[in-house]
Amino acid sequence: MKRANAITGVVLAIVAILSLVVIIPWQIETGPQGMMSPRLVPQIMMGCILLLSVLLFVTNLGPDETGAPQPFSQAELRALALIGGIFALSIVLYYLIGPLAFGVTLVAGSLIGLGERRPLVIVAMPLVLMLMLWALFYKVLGTAIL
Question: Any idea where the domains of the chain sit in the sequence?
């Protein structure tokens, strides 16, 4: 049960952070001068949800009873950090180089990070996926991706 609570806390924290950083600023306009911003109440609520979800995560990190294993093993936390790093690198490459570098890095990096060692699969999967996306958007739909 502690593992489920910890995962729920992480998911709720991610949703709250995305809401605070992306959704609320993009969807709710700032109010006129001299008036309280319409963003205030949603931001306060998301801040409360963020604090409570972090509290839920932190309180459920320990084992259920004495002698029980931790809810997350070191290998799971390392894999989470590795996949998160691959996503971060892919996003940086998207902004620096373009969508092709993003897609190839995301797919090939995830394959390597998850343990794939066959070179043909590591090369072929991003290549086939990118070619299929190109054919879909440019040839079938007749529109550009960007």
Answer: 2-59, 74-140
